[in-house]
């Protein structure tokens, strides 16, 4: 049985769960440095954002990717990030983007490795590289960047306003990640045009299926002018 058929039906409990509410989707780009909450809303975090105590203490949903897990032969899933996710506690709902999909050149998770995710209450979710799907309970999430599945769930859950934070579309993630290189904002931006194109498609998808939802970009870099609104400010 595929990951989609076995685990994705669990996503139905999130469908329209947050109808009319506001959320924040946190990436780890350098513009996160200037984040300031605009209004009350649900925090949806991705990958290294849990290194920030303020966000970690207020997060409700957490998305992390297959690349943040270490694999050891005959032992399953281990590694520092696995332990960090486990330490988040069960009050935070967790989603791990894994795959049995031959469309992707990523590690193919074994049943044992998938069960290891369930041990830390992380829902295994399949990913693909070509489609933004509507019915997530029976389809995979879009890959390319962890913020895409997080945004898809936000739309699926019925949020009427989605703030994007730290979604900067930089080419070299290792060098343009706020938690790894705090001086990166002083460099000339080098944007990933492929990610920007997928954000354009995500925006089109939103307008077609969720026309009453607004996506607002806080301190945008590569996504400037591409969502419903841009907000600029410096953190005080």
Which features would summarize this protein structure in a list?
236 residues; alpha/beta; two-stranded antiparallel sheet
Short note summarizing the structure:
With 236 residues, this protein is of the alpha/beta class. 22% of the residues lie in helices and 22% in strands.
Give an overview of the whole structure.
22% of the residues lie in helices and 22% in strands. The strands form two sheets. The protein has a nine-stranded parallel sheet with strand order 8-7-6-3-2-1-9-10-11.
Q: Characterize the biggest β-sheet.
A: 9 strands, parallel
Low-confidence stretches: none
Our count of helices gives: 6
Q: Tell me the Rg in angstroms.
A: 17 Å
Which strand order does the major sheet show? Answer: 8-7-6-3-2-1-9-10-11
The total strand number stands at 11
Helicity, in percent?
10-25%
Structural class: alpha/beta
Average pLDDT, rounded to a whole number, is 84
Strand proportion = 15-25%
Distance between the termini: 51 Å
Using the alpha-carbon principal axes, give the shape: globular
Order of H and E elements: HEEHEEEHEHEEHEHEE
SSE layout and pairing:
Elements (H helix, E strand, L loop, with lengths): L2 H5 L14 E5 L15 E5 L6 H4 L2 E7 L4 E3 L3 E3 L1 H7 L6 E6 L12 H9 L2 E7 L12 E2 L4 H10 L4 E5 L27 H17 L4 E5 L10 E3 L5
Parallel strand pairs: 1-2, 1-9, 2-3, 3-6, 6-7, 7-8, 9-10, 10-11
Antiparallel strand pairs: 4-5
